[in-house]
Amino acid sequence: xxxxxxxxxxxxxxxxxxxxxxxxxxxxxxxxxxxxxxxxxxxxxxxxxxxxxxxxxxxxxxxxxxxxxxxxxxxxxxxxxxxxxxxxxxxxxxxxxxxxxxxxxxxxxxxxxxxxxxxxxxxxxxxxxxxxxxxxxxxxxxxxxxxxxxxxxxxxxxxxxxxxxxxxxxxxxxxxxxxxxxxxxxxxxxxxxxxxxxxxxxxxxxxxxxxxxxxxxxxxxxxxxxxxxxxxxxxxxxxxxxxxxxxxxxxxxxxxxxxxxxxxxxxxxxxxxxxxxxxxxxxxxxxxxxxxxxxxxxxxxxxxxxxxxxxxxxxxxxxxxxxxxxxxxxxxxxxxxxxxxxxxxxxxxxxxxxxxxxxxxxxxxxxxxxxxxxxxxxxxxxxxxxxxxxxxxxxxxxxxxxxxxxxxxxxxxxxxxxxxxxxxxxxxxxxxxxxxxxxxxxxxxxxxxxxxxxxxxxxxxxxxxxxxxxxxxxxxxxxxxx
Amino acid sequence: xxxxxxxxxxxxxxxxxxxxxxxxxxxxxxxxxxxxxxxxxxxxxxxxxxxxxxxxxxxxxxxxxxxxxxxxxxxxxxxxxxxxxxxxxxxxxxxxxxxxxxxxxxxxxxxxxxxxxxxxxxxxxxxxxxxxxxxxxxxxxxxxxxxxxxxxxxxxxxxxxxxxxxxxxxxxxxxxxxxxxxxxxxxxxxxxxxxxxxxxxxxxxxxxxxxxxxxxxxxxxxxxxxxxxxxxxxxxxxxxxxxxxxxxxxxxxxxxxxxxxxxxxxxxxxxxxxxxxxxxxxxxxxxxxxxxxxxxxxxxxxxxxxxxxxxxxxxxxxxxxxxxxxxxxxxxxxxxxxxxxxxxxxxxxxxxxxxxxxxxxxxxxxxxxxxxxxxxxxxxxxxxxxxxxxxxxxxxxxx
Lengths: 482, 399
Known about the structure:
The complex is a heterodimer. The longest helix of chain A is centred in the middle third of the chain and has 39 residues, at 231-269. Chain A is built from twelve helices and seven strands. In chain A, the strands form three sheets. Chain A has a three-stranded antiparallel beta sheet with strand order 2-1-7. A two-stranded antiparallel sheet of chain A has the order 3-4. Chain A has helices spanning 22-42, 110-130, 141-168, 170-182, 204-226, 231-269, 277-282, 288-304, 312-319, 363-389, 423-433, 437-446; strands at residues 51-56, 67-72, 341-348, 351-358, 413-414, 420-421, 477-478. Chain A is mainly alpha-helical. The two termini of chain B are 30 Å apart. In chain B, helix 7 packs parallel to helix 9. By secondary structure, chain B is α/β, with parallel strands linked by helices. Chain B is globular. Chain B has a six-stranded antiparallel beta sheet, covered by helices on one side. In chain B, strands 14-13-12-15-16 form a five-stranded parallel beta sheet, with helices on both faces. Chain B is built from ten helices and 16 strands. Chain B has helices at 24-28, 75-80, 103-112, 225-231, 269-281, 304-308, 332-338, 340-347, 362-376, 381-390, and strands at residues 3-5, 8-13, 34-36, 41-43, 65-69, 140-149, 159-165, 178-181, 196-199, 213-219, 238-245, 258-264, 289-295, 316-321, 352-358, 394-398. The chains are: A mainly alpha, B alpha/beta. Chain A binds chain B through residues 6, 8, 58-59, 62-67, 69-70, 219, 238, 241-242, 244-246, 248-249, 252-253, 374, 377-378, 381, 384, 464-465, 468-471, and chain B through 17-18, 20-24, 27-28, 38-39, 53-57, 59-62, 82, 125, 127-130, 133-134, 138, 168-170, 172, 210, 253.
C-alpha cells in the first residue's frame, strides 16, 4: 500500500487504506450524506453551483498536494489524508517520553484524547458557518476564491478529526462525529463549543482579521497536537498545518491590502492625519483607527480561546504525552517540566503583575505567548506597508488584560495599553477601543461585490501575486455555471 | 550545494515581502536547508540542493525566487532583508530568468539560445513559468495516450505527434516551455543516456481544455536513441520525463501582441501551442499571428492537414517548400522578403514579438532577411533586434 498517493477507489479519497478497513469505511460512508447535507445547508450561500479554482491534494508529498482546477464545491474531494508515518517516532514529552509513539489509543487516556479531538473538530465546521454569507459581498473573484478555499479546507479538517473519532473511539466516536454536524455557530440552543466560533463574521475585514488571528490559534493548537504521542493525531495535524498556512496567508495579505489601499488613497487625497476619520471614509476606504479597533476585537476574542492562565487540564494533557508545546522537539529542556516555572500575567491586589507559576499548569500561557509573538510579527509587516506608503500611523496588539471574557482578567476592564479602567471610564472609552455600531455600518456600506475578473472593490488593493501564478485577470470563480 | 552556472551560482531565496512565515517550507525541506529568525525565513545556500520540494506547498509564492550570484548571500544578509535584492548584472550570458536548475539542462538551453546574441528575456506579459518541478533524480512518470505519424506515408521524414498524460500528478507547463526525456538503458560505456529536450506542442491546459496532458512533436533521427525510443512507444507505455524547463521563450498573454513565428520541421511545436492558446483564450485578440513555416514538401510539413483548417483571421500562414518539383525552391527567408510590406509594418509596432525555432542552419538566412526587410523600410535591424531582445520580444531556439 502506498501511503503517499491517495486512493480514489473508495468514495472517500484517503491514504489510510480505508479499502481494507471495512468497518471504518462503512462508518464514514454513513456519515458522508449528513456531511453533504450540512455543507448544502451551512456552507457558502449562493455559490454551490459555481466553478471555483481550488487546490485539491492528490497526495501528501510536496509535489502532489497542490493540484489546482475548477471544482463545484459540493463535488470537492474531501478526504482523509495523514502525513506519512515516521519510522521509529517516539513520545517526545511528558511521563511517557522515550516510549514508542502509540498507534492505538492508550486506554487510560481515551476520554482525554477524545475531548481534545472533539474540541479541535468543532472549530472546523464552525468557521464555515460563520463565513457562509461572505461570498455575496466578495471584493473580487480572487478573494472569493480564497474564501472558498478556506471553507473547503476547514471541511476537510472536519473530515480528518471525524476519521480519528470513528476509527479509534468506537460508538462514542461515531456519536461525537454526528454531534459535530448538529451544533451550529451562534445557535442559542446548540452553539459551537468555543466562544469566538459563535461570533458573527459580518464583513470582509472581519474575515481577514478572523483568518489572521483566530485561524492562527488553530495553527498553534494543531502544532501542539502535531507533537502528540498518539501518532495518528500527530500525522493528521501535520498535514492540516500545511493547509492552514493558506488561511494565515489570506488573513495577513487581506489586512495588508486593506492598509495599502487606505494609505494610498490618503496620500492621493493629501490627507496627512490618519485620525481625520470622516475625510478618510469619504474616500471609500477604511480608516486606520477602525482597522486598529477590529484588530483589538479579534485578538482579544482569540486570546480567550487559549483558556485559563492556570490549567490542570493542560498539565494533564502534557504529562500524558497527548498535547505538547509549540515546536516541542525544537525546545532545549527536559520535556517533562516537573520542576520548571513560567512567568504568567496575573491580577494581584488590583494590579497586573508577572508571577512565576509551575510550568506545567501554565502551558496554555506558554502557547498563548508563542501565539502573541507570531501575531506581533505580522502586525510589524502591516506597519511596514503603512510606513512604505508614507503614512504616520502604527498598529499595535492590545494588552493581554484588554477585553477578556475568560481567565484572570475577565472581571476587570483594561485599556489596550493595559491600564485598569473603572466601569464608567470603560463605557466612555469603549467605542475608541472596539468597533462601534456605526463603524460596523460604515464597513458594511463598503461591502459591495465586485465580480468582474481582474477588478477589485475600491477599499482593497489587488494582490501582488496571483494564486497558482495566474495572471491578474484570471477568472478564479465562474459564478454562473449550470 | 548550488547549481553551478558557468562560474556563477544560482541561489534559492525567499521574498520577505510576500512570505508570511508559516513555516511550511521549513517543515517540508527534506535536507533542512530552510531556517528562520525573528524576522525572515531563509534558505541556506550551502545545504539547498534545489530539489524543489518546498515550491508547491508554499501558500504565497514567495518561495519561488532565484538569483544568479558570484558568491551566495549569507544567512545573516538574508535575515536582515525587508525586500529581495535586485538581480546583479553578471558577466556571463546566463544571468537572465532562471530557465532550469540542473546544469545539463541549462547548458542545452544556453546552446539553443546562442542565436539570440544576448541574454534572453521573457515577454512582459508572459505568465510566470514553473521550472524544474521534476528532475533526473525525481522524474515524473507519464502515460502515452497517443502516438501518430504526422508526415505523409511516402515522406522520408517520420515526424510524430505524441501525447503524454499525467493522470493526477501536477505538471504545470506554459506554451514555449520544454520537457526533458532520458531514454532508458545506458550508453556503450555504461553511463545513463543524455537528457533530450522537447518543446511542448500543446497549450497550457492540454490537448483539449483541462485534459492534463501535453503533446510533443518528435522527429525520428537515424540512430537517435531518444527520438527512436519516443517514436516507438505504444499507447499505454510509461515514460519518465523531467521539467518543465524554460522561462523566456514564452507566449505573451497580451492580446494586442503581434507574434511572428518562424520555424522549420519540429520547430513548429511551440507555435502549435501558441496558436492554440490564442484560439482558446483570446479568439478575438487584436494582435496578429503570422506563421512562416518551411519544409521540403507539403507531405513533410508536420500538422499540414490541421493547419489548413485554422482560419487566416486567427493565423496568417506562409508555407515555404524547398523541394516541390517544378517549383522554385522557397525558404522561410524568401517568404519573409516577399512579405516585406506586412512584416516591416509589424516590425515598427512595439507590440510585435518575433520567435524563431528550428534547425540552427536557418538562423543566418532569417537574420539576413530581417535585415533586408528593415533596410527597405528605413529601419536598422541590429539595434532593433537587440532592443527587442532586451524588451522580451525577440526569441530564438535552434538546435
